[in-house]
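If you are new to this repository, start here. Below is one unmodified record pulled from the training split, so you can see the exact layout before writing a loader.
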Amino acid sequence: MSEQEVINAIKLLQKYQMETVKVEAKTAEKDAPKKCYDTISAFANTRGGIIIFGINEDNHFKEQAIYNGNDIQKKITSLCTDSMEPKLRPQFLPLDYNNVPLLAVKIDEIPQSQKPCYYKPAGIKKGAYIRVGDADSPITDYELYCYQSYKDNIQEDLRPIKRASMEDLDQEKISNYLIKLKKEKPNFSKFSDKKILKLSGIIDSNANEFFPTLSGMLMFGEYPQAYLPQLFVACVVVPGTKLGDVGEMGQRFDDNKKVEGTIDEMLEQTLAFIRRNIGTKIVIDEEGKRVNIPEYPMIALREAVANSLIHRDYSIYRESAYIYVQIYDDRIEIINPGDLYGNNRLENLGTDIMPEVRNKNIVRLLEEKGDIIENRHTGIATMRVEMKKMGLPSPEFKSIRGDFKVIFRKEPLPNDIQEFTEKFTEKFTEKFTENEQKILQELVKNPFITQIELSKKLGVTKRSIIKNMKNLKEKNKIKRVGSDRKGYWEIIK
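And here is the target side for that same chain:
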């Protein structure tokens, strides 16, 4: 942690008038804050961060001299070593900013295998936090389970489905798999078929009873949803650009389908649904023949749908959630249950850094079958390349607390909206409600838009628009320039 790094953080706080996912402001005029463990825990469990003592959030993030930097340092050190589990080693940096003494404390993210970091007096369930936007949010039962299952290397795709039996597996598919496996792995030929299936994670046993595993059902089941009813893909076509838009006949969806079956069956049916619901471009090839080309590259969409089926969270905490494919007028969104797994990070997707795999057995079985996974770890790069070939924007990847989303757009966002999205929507999402974010985006596109027009565009009441805009003015994010009739809205950056 350098002094310039802290100064840059202070400038950011004062410019945007808000804390961020990695910067927290605290006053310490008379004593050290009594409650810091939530922020310390949140930083340690998320991406790390800096706490700056001597910045007053209630006074527009102005500097306010701390009472005693040495005493604050002793108390934070004691808190991190005596009351946090695991023990933390914070970094301290005293500095003068505009001739005001401050103290910066840097908390590093701890290794995934040591999470969650929690405040021992409150216990692991009530004393663990994660950073969401500028807030320290208590950890959920699901997030706690994710940490524990990662630490204990629990493989949910090997979980036995005890209501099912061997008869629920497609025997022809099983037979073909065994023939292929014995050919490629001759050592397996000396085992019985049941032992091979057990070693492959397709079945499990209890005494003399055999049960399909979750992997076995999703790969070879005759009808997996008979025992796993929520593990399907919901596909919809929205007549507009947001959920809630309706078509000319008042319909909420132009088409919708519940896709079921094994992983490979759901993949093909989902792609068929997408293919029939997206437009096509007609081009003339080198031989003068007319060729219909889908307006989105099907190779990229195939990779995205396959990833959602392969890498979604199949744990008991998310088995009631389904994959959602939404086709809008201007984009396609694919949402699957389960955030990025383990140490995976958005910025590393599609790079040479090998990602960690949640469903190891499903991945291995698909590789052995060879009909879906051909080149492991190339899916994200393929999506980007295929979109670029068609002159389309690169796909967007969003990690949403508990879910993961991929967005394919027909057109790039205008530069001013893209800049707004990067500065406000992504970095400071948690500071605004969803409606406030939408209002800000509309104001970027048209500063002269009226509240009635906003009400119609967003599908909410005028009273709601008035309330949200009042909140934005109080947050010092917008101001009215000129008269009510002839003026316009200005976003304060």
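Two things worth knowing about this chain: The radius of gyration is 27 Å. The first helix runs from residue 3 to 16.
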